[in-house]
């Protein structure tokens, strides 16, 4: 495996701002400048935020683009209201309102896990708002192409229940074990600051209450398979070879469900490759973003 050329330590988060998007409020961090806007949408693990998932790689993107990093609803410092109705419909509509509030007409979306499914729904509903998608470790379809999904597709939910459950509740060691078991390929590379950041955020009383709520506070689950055919923008599925949630046959299936899909498999990486191998991840995604996406491909 090629060694990382940069420190994986996220460092302290820069100061962000609270942005009102309809009735929702998003805490956002911005970096870089320019007409090309890239949203970084984080994953859904306990204690995840935009900064925890994209800190190091965000500096690389900010050298070329205006980068917007929102904490997704129910995470970080953003609104934590219970979501009613179809979940991906709600999130995708809310992100468009955030774009309006920030004066962004169209953007590229680079996403991990939970954030990627939001972006896929956004692209299928509001194609005029999305230039391209990069999807990493997301599960928009609740089946595998060759065999059942691990733990019936509930590996994330089960990991959350274990983390918040038990007599002791969340602990620093449980957070370290969760990241090592499910998110990173090489546990020796996990920065202690990342573990502490995620752990401290996971203790937020509102996040803990949402985790303990048995009545689907995240909204009604939506099966995305019927709408993926409506995703017309160029879409890169960038996957870890050792992803513990979804093996590479899964994004290969997704690639064939959208209109302009392609797939890159990165070795020696699991679910959070943008954290574990940031410079490799950036080079892959930056190259994809530089393709002439607005041109109609011959034969398409």
From TrEMBL:
It comes from the Bacteria. This is Pimeloyl-ACP methyl ester carboxylesterase. Residues 38-278 form the AB hydrolase-1 domain. GO terms for cellular component: membrane. It comes from Litorimonas taeanensis. SUPFAM superfamilies: alpha/beta-Hydrolases. GO terms for molecular function: catalytic activity. InterPro entries: AB_hydrolase_1, AB_hydrolase_fold, AB_hydrolase_sf, Epox_hydrolase-like. The lineage of its organism: Bacteria, Pseudomonadati, Pseudomonadota, Alphaproteobacteria, Maricaulales.
């Amino acid at each position: 495996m090629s060694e990382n050329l940069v420190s994986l330590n996220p460092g302290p988060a820069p100061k962000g701002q609270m942005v009102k998007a309809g009735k929702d409020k998003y805490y956002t961090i911005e970096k870089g400048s320019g007409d090309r806007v890239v949203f970084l949408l984080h994953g859904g693990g306990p204690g995840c935020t935009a900064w925890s998932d994209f800190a190091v790689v965000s500096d690389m993107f900010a050298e070329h683009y205006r980068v917007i990093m929102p904490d997704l609803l129910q995470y970080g410092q953003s609104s934590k209201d219970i979501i009613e109705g179809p979940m991906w419909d709600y999130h995708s509509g809310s992100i468009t309102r955030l774009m309006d509030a920030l004066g962004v007409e169209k953007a590229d979306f680079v996403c991990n896990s939970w954030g990627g499914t939001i972006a896929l729904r956004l692209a299928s509903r509001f194609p005029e708002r999305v230039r391209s998608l990069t999807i990493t470790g997301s599960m928009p379809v609740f089946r595998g192409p060759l065999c059942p999904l691990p733990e019936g597709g509930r590996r994330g939910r089960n990991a959350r229940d274990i983390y918040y459950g038990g007599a002791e509740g969340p602990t620093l060691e449980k957070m370290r074990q969760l990241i090592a078991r499910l998110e990173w390929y090489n546990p020796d590379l996990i920065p202690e600051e990342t573990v502490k950041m995620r752990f401290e955020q996971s203790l937020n009383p509102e996040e803990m209450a949402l985790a303990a709520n048995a009545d689907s506070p995240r909204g009604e689950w939506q099966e995305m398979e019927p709408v993926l055919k409506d995703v017309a923008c160029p879409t890169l599925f960038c996957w870890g070879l050792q992803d513990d949630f979804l093996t590479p046959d899964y994004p290969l299936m997704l690639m064939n469900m959208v209109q302009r899909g392609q797939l890159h498999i990165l070795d020696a990486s699991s679910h959070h490759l943008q954290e574990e191998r940031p410079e490799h991840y950036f080079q892959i995604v930056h190259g994809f973003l530089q393709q002439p996406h607005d041109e109609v491909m011959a034969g398409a």
